[in-house]
Amino acid sequence: MTTLTRWSPIHDMSTIQTRLNSMLQELLSPELEKELLDSTGSFVPPVDIYEDGHKLAIKLEVPGIKEGDLDIKIVDQTLTIRGERKLNTEEKTENFHRIERRYGQFTRSFTLPNTVDTEKVQAKFEHGVLTVELPKRPEAQPKQIKVTIGKQLEGKPAV
Q1: Which of 29, 77, 102, 119 is the most exposed place for a label (fewest CB within 10 A)?
Q2: What is the domain-level CATH number for residue 85?
Q3: Half-sphere exposure for 131 (CA within 13 Å, toward CB)
Q4: Cβ–Cβ contacts within 10 Å for residue 60, how many?
Q5: Count of domains in the chain?
Q6: What span, in angstroms and rounded, lies between the C-alpha atoms of 116 and 14?
């Protein structure tokens, strides 16, 4: 007598993925894994960019990077942020079981709109987040215009 079992493609795919992961993990020694990470390029920190009536702000997540390892420049209308996250060489790499965090240098460049006053840019670094505030030029900032109701404008006849 044979027993019928229900076929589950999701279970089979999960089993295949688990087997492939274990085979790859056996093949990759920590030295080879670090070399592979280095050859695939350095990391790119995530960025949030937002704007209000008075400024444009850029926030970069750069945990593990020292303030002195960050370089911020504006040339023409391009903001460039460079940095480096260094691997702690005091720890022996042959004892690592896995290296998933990215190390190395990064560069992020942003073209700024002409409304930004590049002479008044400020940056702060707090809790692993770099915030660059780019104030808008006075002529680009919103202006409040008072509206009078029921009165005539100077020099204009009431209609």
Answers
A1: 119
A2: 2.60.40.790
A3: 11
A4: 24
A5: 1
A6: 51
Helix (H, G, I), strand (E, B) or coil at 83: strand
Per-residue pLDDT 10s for the chain (159 aa) are 667 767 677 767 777 887 877 776 666 555 555 555 454 456 788 999 999 889 999 999 999 888 888 999 999 889 999 998 887 766 665 677 777 777 888 899 999 988 899 999 999 999 999 999 999 988 766 777 788 887 665 666 555
- Compute the distance between CA of residue 40 and CA of residue 29 in angstroms, rounded to an integer: 16
In this structure, what token pair is assigned to residue 136? 């808008």
| Domain membership flag for residue 59 | yes
The amino acid occupying position 136 is K
Measured CA distances, 7 to 11, 12, 55, 110 (Å): 9, 9, 58, 51
Q: Is residue 72 part of a domain?
A: yes
Residue 32 lies in a domain: no
Domain that holds residue 89: 41-139
DSSP state of 151: S
